[in-house]
Structures are given as structure tokens and as C-alpha cells.
């Protein structure tokens, strides 16, 4: 009987251990080898891959490339093309060997150079509080710009765009860039005549862009108050700027070519921020088959009127 049992188990389980009385299974032989460099590299690459997936490395890398490209291109087009080639092409070149500068405190040069008639530098900057303010403003604008690009890349890879709202974001790049350059100039030249006025426009433009970015993603619900907020802000922009420099410079023809181009570059985005959200609001009302009175609370309409009135008032006096 035992012989039959052993033959049966041997047939069914080739690894059956006949040795001993407990009839246990024999552990299969395994070949154990020392880990090689190839195994280590493959394991590390696998870890990097999964870490990149969790960290969304691709999204961040694409955002960095796009943001860096635009940040490099915009000042180049502004100064290297528009100013240098179009607006003031007749300015003579600087004599780099013979020129000197007595306004440079040379602090960032350390002991290598002392104040006086210092030699030519491509970039001069003094160790002052205004230089720090310029750096803070520049850093804030660059960070906000990068974060907005990163958000749009994430939307593109995980969801879908509302193309009309994406167009509004692109159109508003010039006003944001102009704000950064203006604050740079205010602090650099200590010329603050229009500082408060421009700060009002800058803050409201950032609020507008925040709502536009939110609406770029189809996953975010389109709501009446968001569209009304954009309409109110840009209506204030049109009223304030239209009753100020735009009429005098563009319509009355008293502005230079540069001023006319600047005013048009700032007015056109405001107009689009009225037309496109207005059309989207119309589609929203039509899609929901609701009356305007049913779609908006009385408080929202009242707030819209108050914001336009107060915004126009403060925009004019600042």
C-alpha cells in the first residue's frame, strides 16, 4: 500500500520527497545569482518612471518649456524687434570702449570695481530698495505665468479646452506683459504718476484671467456670476481707458504711433472680453432655457451695477 501511495504521489507530484516518514514536498531548486549592474539600472529606471508618473513630470516639463520660451520671446520681440527695428531704429550704437557710467554703485561687483567712471556693462543695477521691488515684481509675474501655463497643460492632457476661453487667455498676454514692464519702469525711473491707476488695471486683469483659466476647463461648470464678473471688469476697463488716453490718442489722432499701438493692444483684449463672454452667456441662457431673471439673482445684478459704477469712479480718480 505504501509503495502504491508513493508511486501515485510521485506521478502526481514529481517533487514529492520520498525520503523520511513525513512524505513532505521537496523544495524546487532555484538558481541564485548575484545582482548585476544591468539589474540595478533597470530597477532604478523603473522607479524613476513610476515616480515621474506620480509627479506628473511630463506636464511640468512641457509647462516649463512653453513658459520659458514665451518669457524669452516677449522681451525680445518688445525691445529687440519692435523698439530696435521699428520704433527707434535711428538711435546710434553705444561706444563700448569709450563710454563710462558714474551712476553705478558697483555693490554687486564687490571689490572688483569701485564707484566712479566705470566701464561698459550690458546690465547695470544698484543695490537699492527699488531694485528689490523690481525683482519681487518680476518673480511674481514669472511664477504666476508659469503656474497658468502648467494649469493649461494639465487641462490639455487630462480634460478638454473651451477654445473660446483659451483664446481669451492668449489675447490677454500682452496686457499682463505690459503691466510687468510698466511696473519695472515705474520703480526703475521712480516715476509714479500713473502707478495707482495702473495697479487698478493690473489687479482687475489678474482677476479676469483667473476666471478665464477656470473656464478653460470643460470640467468646471459655467456659471452666470463668472461671466458677469468678466463682463463687469472689462466694461470698467473700456469706460475708463476709453474716456482717457484712447480717445485723445487714437480717435482724436493726438497720439504717436507707439501710443496708438499700445492703446489698441490694451483695448482690443477688453473688447474681446466683452464679446466672447457675452456670447457664451447668451448660449448658456439659451441652453438652459431660462429667462435672464431666473438665471441671475437680484443681488448679482445689483453687484454688477455697483461694481461697474464704483470701478469706473475709482479708475478715473486713481
From TrEMBL:
<feature type="transmembrane region" description="Helical">
    <location>
        <begin position="61"/>
        <end position="84"/>
    </location>
</feature>
<keyword id="KW-1133">Transmembrane helix</keyword>
<feature type="transmembrane region" description="Helical">
    <location>
        <begin position="195"/>
        <end position="213"/>
    </location>
</feature>
<feature type="transmembrane region" description="Helical">
    <location>
        <begin position="301"/>
        <end position="317"/>
    </location>
</feature>
<keyword id="KW-0472">Membrane</keyword>
<protein>
    <submittedName>
        <fullName>Uncharacterized protein</fullName>
    </submittedName>
</protein>
<keyword id="KW-0812">Transmembrane</keyword>
<feature type="transmembrane region" description="Helical">
    <location>
        <begin position="225"/>
        <end position="243"/>
    </location>
</feature>
<feature type="transmembrane region" description="Helical">
    <location>
        <begin position="165"/>
        <end position="183"/>
    </location>
</feature>
<feature type="transmembrane region" description="Helical">
    <location>
        <begin position="134"/>
        <end position="153"/>
    </location>
</feature>
Amino acid at each position: 500500500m505504501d509503495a502504491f501511495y508513493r508511486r501515485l504521489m510521485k506521478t502526481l507530484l514529481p517533487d514529492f520527497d520520498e525520503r523520511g516518514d513525513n512524505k513532505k514536498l521537496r523544495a524546487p531548486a532555484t538558481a541564485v545569482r548575484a545582482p548585476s549592474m544591468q539589474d540595478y539600472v533597470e530597477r532604478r529606471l523603473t522607479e524613476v518612471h513610476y515616480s515621474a508618473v506620480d509627479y506628473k513630470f511630463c506636464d511640468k516639463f512641457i509647462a516649463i518649456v512653453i513658459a520659458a520660451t514665451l518669457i524669452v520671446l516677449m522681451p525680445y520681440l518688445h525691445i529687440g524687434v519692435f523698439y530696435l527695428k521699428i520704433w527707434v531704429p535711428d538711435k546710434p550704437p553705444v561706444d563700448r570702449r569709450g563710454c563710462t557710467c558714474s551712476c553705478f554703485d558697483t555693490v554687486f561687483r564687490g571689490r572688483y570695481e569701485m564707484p566712479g567712471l566705470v566701464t561698459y556693462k550690458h546690465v547695470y543695477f544698484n543695490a537699492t530698495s527699488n531694485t528689490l521691488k523690481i525683482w519681487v515684481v518680476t518673480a511674481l509675474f514669472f511664477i504666476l505665468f508659469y503656474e497658468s501655463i502648467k494649469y493649461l497643460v494639465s487641462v490639455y492632457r487630462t480634460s478638454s479646452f473651451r477654445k473660446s476661453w483659451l483664446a481669451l487667455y492668449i489675447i490677454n498676454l500682452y496686457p499682463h506683459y505690459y503691466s510687468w514692464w510698466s511696473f519695472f519702469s515705474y520703480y526703475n525711473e521712480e516715476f509714479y504718476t500713473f502707478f495707482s491707476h495702473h495697479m487698478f488695471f493690473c489687479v482687475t486683469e489678474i482677476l479676469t484671467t483667473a476666471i478665464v483659466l477656470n473656464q478653460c476647463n470643460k470640467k468646471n461648470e459655467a456659471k452666470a456670476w463668472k461671466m458677469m464678473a468678466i463682463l463687469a471688469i472689462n466694461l470698467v476697463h473700456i469706460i475708463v481707458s476709453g474716456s482717457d488716453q484712447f480717445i485723445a490718442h487714437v480717435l482724436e489722432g493726438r497720439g504717436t504711433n507707439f501710443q496708438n499701438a499700445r492703446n489698441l493692444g490694451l483695448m482690443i483684449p477688453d473688447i474681446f472680453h466683452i464679446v466672447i463672454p457675452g456670447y457664451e452667456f447668451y448660449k448658456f441662457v439659451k441652453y438652459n432655457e431660462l429667462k435672464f431673471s431666473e438665471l441671475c439673482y437680484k443681488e448679482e445684478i445689483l453687484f454688477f451695477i455697483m461694481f461697474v459704477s464704483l470701478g469706473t469712479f475709482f479708475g478715473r480718480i486713481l
